[in-house]
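Cont'd.
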Amino acid sequence: MSKRTQRKSMGYIKKDYIRTRTMPGSWYLSSYRFKFNITHFKPFQDKLKERKLVGLQCSSCNRVFFPPRLICGKCFVKPDRWVDLRETGRVATFTITYLKDLETGEVSERPVVLVQQDGSDTTYTAQLSPDVDYKDTYIGMPVKVHWAEEPTGGLMDIQFYDLVEDNSKDLELRKD
Amino acid sequence: MGRQVCIASAGFSEHASKRSDVNMPELVSEAIEDCLKKVPSVSVNDIDAFVNGNMPAFEGSNIPELWMTDWMGARNKPLMRITTGGTTGGSVAIGGYYTVTAELPGIDTVLAIAFEQQSQGDTSTGLASVAYGEISVLNTLGISYEQLTQLLSAGAAIGVASYQATNYMRRSKITEEDLARVVVQNRHNAANTWWAHLKMPDLTIADVLETPYISYPLRYGMVCPASDGACAMLFTTEEKAKDLCDIPVYVNGVGSVANESGVLGYNGSGAGQLDTSEQLGAMKSAELAFGQAGISFPRKEIDYAEVYSPFPNQELMWIERLGLFEENTASEMYETGVTALNGELPINCSGGVNSTNAIGASAMERPAVAALQIMGKASNQVPKTVHTAIGHGWGGIINLITMMVMSNKPTRKIK
Ligand SMILES: [Zn+2]
């Protein structure tokens, strides 16, 4: 094919079909079988049932993963040391979602946060207590686990995080 | 090791929210035509190999590269598809560079093509399919789907980006007005770019701040559109490029680095990026690419930058992390006009991803625009002479970065 014919034919494609037809169709992700290894999760879930928090520590870089992770990508090592964690944590970052009630049309603001559990080196998505106003959320906010009534050994055993009252003023008083 | 590689040309299709007048192959052929128009002595027959890519699952059509073989002129020629999510375009461009630098017999000229026709499929299904694995795991571990959608605030990039925006705003102490200023500059630039999508020459900061929140701190007026469009880049050897065009653009360094994911960990575990605006991956890929290109002082040596920023906070963050500005000074640069078209270091004069986002193509449009700025052929050409420019791409769960450093001189350190 000469250079001229090639050029011409590319233009031809567009000129001849002024409007390309649209054919509607549907495409679903109907079923899905995702595989993942859960061995490292078992002790974590057992502890959750007892209302206790544990993280998995990498013996090479000492990072603590909460919830646990099967492999530390930094060291290419399998974390194998379980460490106890406190119930407190801090808001690492947050955003506010605006959910519309389908019936009333009312928009409700909800803060959703990433919490770094004290003693761990990771964050995880969580919710704040419904009592916390979305306007009061900030990065570094001290929070504490609010346990579900009957822990079942799932991540939802941490129902949400309660705000920890800032007691630094009390501390200063005590110093006096 | 490896020969010098030049960009001889780059081209775009027109971008819009619905290009229903064309199908995917036709959209791609538009970009190829625009690319080859700039180098009249090259025809499709002179191209030795093709690299092609788009975001998978967004259009509901697999193997599009085979469907469009004839439209690209790739029949009976080496053809490779690369797809890496948001950075697809950047990876395709790097793929084009690697193919030429590899010195394979008979392969000198390579056409790299990246595209996306989002209107054809369901973008939210596409995005959901990206996170579906993680969501299934969290669901198995006891978090309900309802809760999950809320946690990830509608899943997808916007959710991840708003966490990052909060982090960045706190770190650099900027306001929403600073974010809006970035958007205004981008949309004004887009108005002068023929192929751009959201052209708003009269947009003001107040207009942006009037739009409602999509998820705090990002407003509807601040986020990128979903576009249909394609981009093509022509990579060739130094010798051939000198014949083809007046100013061949040398690719002096590339980088593609994946950092630990942010917001979502793997298989339900905690996420390792404590501050998602820290971006060690971006720093590392910049270090790699600048190292290859022999650039020690990016702030002084780079004349033009195209960064991948669907959201304004990311634009500020990237230009700091890539070493173009000191930390926490980026928003000041927008205020004083340093980053404007006629500024000292213009950023995203095509309007950026903030104005045009055909996902698979976006990360290639960055180096493509940067190369055209060096050639002096860009649609919204900066008045000053551009010697060295960068094109950056971002994707994944805020963790994959691609970089390409280009110049009108060969400065590559690896020989
Ligand atoms: Zn480690």
